[in-house]
Amino acid sequence: MKCTFLAALLAFSAGAQAQLYKDKTATPEARAKSIVAEMTLEEKVSLMMHSAPAIERLGIRRYNWWNEALHGVGRAGLATVFPQPIGMAASWDDPLLFRVFDATSTEARAKNNDARRRGSVRQYQGLTFWTPNVNLFRDPRWGRGHETYGEDPYLTAVLGVQVVRGLQGPADAKHNKLHACAKHFAIHSGPEWNRHSYDAKNIAPRDLAETYLPAFKALVQKGGVKEVMCAYNRYEGEPCCGNNRLLQQILRDEWGYEGIVLSDCWAVNDFYVKGRHETEPDPEHATAKAVRSGTDLECGNSYGSLVQAVHDGLVSEAAIDCSIIRLMKARYELGEMDDEADVEWQRVPMSVVDSKEHRDLALRMARESMVLLQNRDHLLPLNRGMKIAVLGPNANDSVMQWGNYNGFPSHTSTLLSALRERLPEANIIYDPACDHTSQSSIQSLFDRCEANGQPGFSASYWNTLDEDLPATPDATAQVSTAFHFTTAGATVFAPGVSLREFTGHYATVFRAERDEEMAFSLQMQGHAVLSIDGEEVFEGGNMKSGNVYSLHVEAGRSYRIGLTFRATEGDCCSLNFDFGRRVPLDPSATLARVADADVVIFAGGISPQLEGEEMPVHIPGFKGGDRDLIELPEVQRMMLRRLHEAGKRVVFVNYSGSAIALPMETQWADAIVQAWYPGQAGGDALADVLLGDYNPAGRLPVTFYRSTADLPDFEEYSMQGRTYRYFGGTPLFCFGYGLSYTTFRYGQPRVSAATVKTGKGVTLTVPVTNAGERDGEEVVQVYLARIGDTEGPQRALRAFRRVSIPAGQTVNVQLRLEADQLEWFDPRSNVMGAVPGSYQLLVGPSSDVQQLQPVALTIR
C-alpha cells in the first residue's frame, strides 16, 4: 500500500463511503481507510503501540501485536517446541521447515481461537508473530546467532521464505493465517551489550548488498512478509527505526514493500535516552522522526508523544494516517476485526496443540538437525550391549533444549531419559561430572530448612497478581525439595492454583551448621523476589541464568528465606529454585565411577543461560549474552582431557547455538555430534543417532573455527575474514560439512548450457551414489565463484537439495539455478545483478573446495 495521503483524504470527502469498514465484501485497504477516517488523532495514536486498546464505538477490540514463534508458539503455554532455528538450518530441508511453521501457525490460530472464546486475547495469544530472525550469523560470538539460520545469505533467504509461507498460510485464502515479521532490519548481529548505542557505519556497499540485505529482500519480494522489524542499532549515524535510507529508499522504494514496519521493543526510546543513541532531544522529536521515516508501529510506549508532536508541527496527521491505515489493513487481512463465523481459521480446534502429528514432526526435525562431525574408527553407532557412562551438564537438562523465545512442551526427552528408555538401567552410569563453566556445583541444603514444623518451604498461593493480597491464600502446600515448577502441559504448581496470573509465596527458616558461603540459584518464566531476613536481595523476571545471590552464613544462626513468584507471562510460567553450599569439582571421583564403562558419552557445550539476548551474564568467556571466547569452557575441556588420559572412548555431544572451537577436543574424543538446542524431542533424536536407529545427515549452517584468534574484531562489520565466503584460514569444520554412517560418491556434473544470457538460468545435474550399506541422505550443494574477482567471496552458495538415496543406488540430482541465483555484485551500480563474465559452478557435499567439482559457466 503506497502512502497516498491525497487519495486517502479524497476517498472520504463525501459521505458515500462512510462506514465502509462494516462491509465485509470491501477490500481490507478500503475498510482500513474507512475506519481510520472515523478516528480522532488520539485514537489513531493509541493504536500505534504494541498494546493497542479497544475503541468500542468503532468495534475495535483490544489487541497486542507482540507474539513470538521463533521455533513453535512461544510464551503462550503448552506448545510443540521444535529445535532452535540454527538447528533447523542444519537440516538443510526447506520443505520440512515449511511444515514446521505450518504446524506452528495452526497451533497459534488454535490458541487465538480459544482465547477469543474465553473473552480475552492477551499478549502472546495474537495473530502477528515477530519471527523469523534473518540477520546473518557473521560472528560466532554473537549471543542471538542461534535465533538465525546461519552465516550464509542464500541459505537464510531460502529458509526464511519457508518460515513466512508456513506462518502466513495459502496466498489464495480469504484471510491470512498469521502475519510473519522479518527482523532485525538491518546490519544487526551483535554485540548485545552495546546494541542500544552502536553505530554500524562505513559499511561497504558490497557487504550491504551481498550479505546484510539479501535475506530481507527475499522475504519481501518472494515471501510476501507482512511485517518488518527495524533494529536497535544505528546505520550510518541514524537509528534503524528512524533511518530513511533503510526504511524508505531501500525497503519501500526499491523493493516495493507495502506492509508494516515496527520497532524493536523500546528502540524508539534509544533515540533520546541518555547514554544510548541520543540523536533526538525528546520523545516528541524521536517519535516524529520514526513515523516520518516509516515506522508504523512501536513496541513500547513512546508513541504516546505523537499527539503533542503533531500539535507541535513535527509530524503531520497525514503521516499518522498512513501508518494507522497499514495497521488496520493488517487486522482486516487477518480477520481479527470480523466475527468468528466469517473467518475460516476460527475453526481450528485446540486439539491440534501438542498433537501426535506435531510431536512426530518435532522428532523428525530434531533428527535432521543432528550433525555428525567426527567418527573415528566408526565408534558410532554404539553397540547396545555396551556399558555406557553418560556425563556432562547437558545430559539431563530439558530447559536447555528449549532454547529461547520458547513454548512449553508436554514432555521433553533428554539424552539421559532417552537412553534409559532404550537400554537396560544396569548398562547406564550417570554422573553430571561438572557444571557448564564452574569448578564447583551446588549441594542442596533443603534438608536444613523447616517451615510450620515440617522440612522444606511452606507455599501459599493466591489466584491473582494484585499487589494487595488477601490474608487467606487460595491454596497452600509444603515443598520439601528444590523447586521445579512449570505450568507446561496444563500442570498446576499445586492443587487449587490457577495456570496463569497467580502469586506464590514460599517461606522457610534455614539453620546453618557451619560458617560458609551459600549460593542461591533461580530460573524462571515470570517474576521473582528473593529476601533474606526480610531484606530483598534479588528481583528479576524471565531469567534463564542460574546463580543470583551469595550469602555468608554463620554456624548456629537461623535465616528466614522468602521467595515471592508472580506468574506474569500468561499460562507459560515456570520456577526453578535451589540453594546450598558450593562443592568443588572432583574429577577423580567421576573417573572412578565410570571405570567399568565401555564408552563415555559426554554431553557438554553451553546453554541459553549463557548465550542469548542482552543477558546479565558476566562469566569468563561470556559477556552480556555474547561470548568473548569461542572455545569450550575450561572445566569441560579438563574433564574431556582427563577421560582421554584415562583411556576411555569418548563420544562428545556438543549442545550449543553457535560454533565452538574444538581443536583439542577432536583429539580427546573419538566421535563428536553437534546437537544444537534440539527442542522437546532432542533426547530421542540424539539417542536414535547414537544407537544407529537414524542415519545422521545434518550439515553445518556455520563455520566452526579453530580458535577465537581466527576471528576479526567483533564490532567490525566488514565481511573480510568472516564466514566461509571470506575466511582465508583453514576451519576446523567447514560450512556445509557433516558426516553419515554411509558413503556418498559424486559423478561428473553437467549443466544444461555452458553459456547463458543475462537474465536466464541454468540446470545442473550430478549423479550421486550411496556406496555404503545403509540407506542415507545427502545434502548436495552448489556454489558459484566468479573468476578473477579478487574482492569478492571465494565461493557463495546458490543451490542445495537434501536427497534420500538407498544403499547401493545412484540418483541423478537436478538443481535449477534461476537468474537471481546467478547474480553477482556489480561494483558499477553497487547492487547485486546479472554481471557478464566467467564463472564456476562448484558442486559437492560441503563448502570445502577440495570436495567440490567445478563446472565452467559463462554469463553474457
Description:
The protein has 860 residues and is α+β, with helices and mostly antiparallel strands. Helix content is 22%, strand content 24%. The protein is built from 20 helices and 40 strands. Strands 13, 14, 15, 16, 18, 20, 21 and 23 form an eight-stranded antiparallel beta sheet that branches. Strands 9-29-28-25-10-11 form a six-stranded mixed beta sheet, with helices on both faces. Helix 18 links the parallel strand 28 (650-655) and strand 29 (671-674). The longest helix has 24 residues, at 94-117. It starts with a helix and ends with a strand.
Spatial extent as radius of gyration: 28 Å
User: Which overall shape is indicated by the principal axes computed on the Cα atoms?
Assistant: globular
Q: How many DSSP E strands? A: 40
The percentage helix is 10-25%
For the largest beta-sheet, the strand count, sense and barrel status come to: 8 strands, antiparallel
Structural class, from helix and strand content?
Answer: alpha+beta
Number of helices, counting only DSSP H or I runs of 4 residues or more: 20
Beta-strand content bin: 15-25%
Q: What gap, in angstroms, lies between the N and C termini?
A: 37 Å
Spans of at least 5 consecutive residues with low confidence: 5-14
Query: Mean pLDDT score, rounded?
Result: 95
